């Protein structure tokens, strides 16, 4: 494990370094050259921590965090709030029940929860607090990108065009989150409590794509292990690696470049991919451990080594659940349905 951990750190750090060195210098000291698609989760916070090693001292780094108004969840929240006192609360059929959709507890200093206090917003705030504690000299600019439901609907057609030939609800719910995050228009809250509108000027974004695929971060990796053991897990991970170029990278590249920006993927450095491929699977992921430990085990070890104690234990949460783009209209909607500009329909080949 020690040798594997050292290899991951060295190759990932080199991937981050090489992808920062080629970014043009910003026009002024107050402008960031790099932004990170930031949920506060394991992958993105490790990239941020490593980026601190190679960005010029004192230069800001934009952390883009997106949150959506989800009318389905807001309706459920309202229904619970108006129930008569003394009556036992009942769970709506569309109320989130999966671990991915559950909202982490609010930080003690947080005010009353708002529409945009989605799971990724809360973990994002905890993540930036962790970064500020470890790297206090870096101006970490946490950009809160809040998207009303109406605005998300207005962008639906544009995003559907960009993700073609992909067309599922899952692809759209991921892409719409990245599209608005990559736009980089939001606000920054300062320690004084003041909130100031902000538009990121960066030309390069970092994405954590590739970590889950190579290090067994998805729930289906655990399912496959439970069904078919180590051989089944290896097959599932290899499937993700084999299809990542056309399944994920093309989609994300088109989404981000629509705003005149470039997305870079440090976890997909050729040297790192090659090194990870040579490692035994049990060093990278071990489903015998519980959720929040076994998946992406090696990356969690790296986060712990860096000093990211909270993030090293953060369970995987898909962006569509963390940003609340999933199941905006109906709780019965599935990710494999085909999404259209005004509605969804089942795929004919299902």
From TrEMBL:
Is the Amino-acid biosynthesis keyword given for this protein?
yes
Question: What are the coiled-coil residue ranges?
Answer: none
A single GO BP term for this record reads: asparagine biosynthetic process
**Segments for region (Disordered):** 77-119, 313-350
Q: Amino-acid biosynthesis: is it a keyword of this entry?
A: yes
Q: Where is the composition biased (Basic and acidic residues)?
A: 338-350
Task: Supply the InterPro entries for this chain.
Answer: Asn_synthase, Asn_synthetase_domain, Rossmann-like_a/b/a_fold
State one molecular function term (GO).
asparagine synthase (glutamine-hydrolyzing) activity
This chain's protein is named: Asparagine synthetase domain-containing protein 1
Q: Which organism is it from?
A: Rhizophlyctis rosea
Query: Lineage, please?
Result: Eukaryota, Fungi, Fungi incertae sedis, Chytridiomycota, Chytridiomycota incertae sedis
């Amino acid at each position: 494990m020690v040798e594997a951990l050292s290899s991951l750190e060295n190759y990932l750090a080199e991937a981050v370094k090489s992808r920062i060195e080629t970014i043009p210098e910003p026009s002024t000291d107050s402008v960031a050259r790099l932004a990170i698609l930031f949920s506060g989760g394991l992958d993105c916070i490790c990239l941020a921590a490593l980026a601190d090693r190679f960005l010029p001292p004192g230069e800001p780094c934009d952390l883009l965090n997106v949150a959506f108004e989800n009318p389905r969840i807001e309706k459920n929240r309202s229904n619970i709030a108006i129930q008569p006192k003394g009556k036992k609360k009942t769970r709506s059929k569309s109320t989130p029940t999966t671990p991915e959709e559950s909202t982490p507890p609010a930080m003690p200093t947080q005010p009353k929860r708002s529409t945009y206090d989605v799971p990724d917003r809360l973990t994002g705030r905890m993540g930036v607090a962790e970064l500020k504690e470890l790297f206090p000299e870096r101006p970490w600019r946490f950009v809160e990108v809040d998207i009303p439901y109406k605005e998300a609907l207005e962008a639906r057609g544009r995003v559907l065009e960009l993700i073609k030939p992909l067309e599922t609800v899952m692809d759209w719910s991921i892409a719409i989150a990245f599209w608005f995050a990559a736009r980089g228009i939001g606000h920054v809250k300062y320690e004084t409590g003041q909130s100031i509108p902000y538009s990121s000027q960066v030309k390069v974004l970092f994405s954590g794509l590739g970590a889950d695929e190579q290090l067994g971060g998805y729930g289906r990796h655990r399912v496959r292990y439970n069904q078919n053991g180590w051989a089944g897990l290896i097959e599932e991970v290899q499937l993700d690696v084999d299809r990542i170029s056309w399944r994920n990278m093309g989609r994300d590249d088109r989404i981000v470049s629509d705003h005149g920006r470039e997305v870079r993927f440090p976890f997909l450095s050729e040297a790192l991919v090659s090194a990870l491929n040579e490692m035994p699977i049990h060093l990278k992921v071990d489903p015998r451990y519980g959720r929040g430990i076994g998946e992406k085990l090696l990356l969690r070890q790296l986060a712990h080594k860096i000093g990211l104690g909270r993030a090293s234990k953060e369970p995987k949460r898909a962006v569509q659940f963390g940003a609340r783009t999933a199941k905006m209209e109906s709780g019965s909607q599935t990710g494999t349905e085909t999404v259209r500009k005004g509605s969804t329909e089942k795929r004919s080949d299902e």
